[in-house]
Design a protein that fits this description.
The chain is mainly alpha-helical. It is 58% helix and 0% strand. It has six helices and no strands. The chain is globular.
Length: 105
Amino acid sequence: MADETRWVCSCEACKDHPRSSEATEHRKLNRALSGLDQKHARRVLGLLAEKEGHGGIARLSRVTGVSRTTILQGQRELVGKDPIPENRVRRSGGGRKTLEKKCQD
């Protein structure tokens, strides 16, 4: 999740008034999330969406660029059993295949 382009707010407030207090808050949130791996960023966004209340998922999706389903998954992970082992960021088999496996096909 260290991708710089992912953590950019696309809301109208940030586009029209980049120096506003709302835009500053959005930059702070995106800067904090950029230091987290995928699993922890998902869970933090899920927690923030719950605190936000109605419309929180859509707002956070717009501010961070993360899909609504990913934020929902973070909320589910906070409540239920963790489907991802403690020492991993993704489930086994997740992510891109290695180059060697691609070339053999």
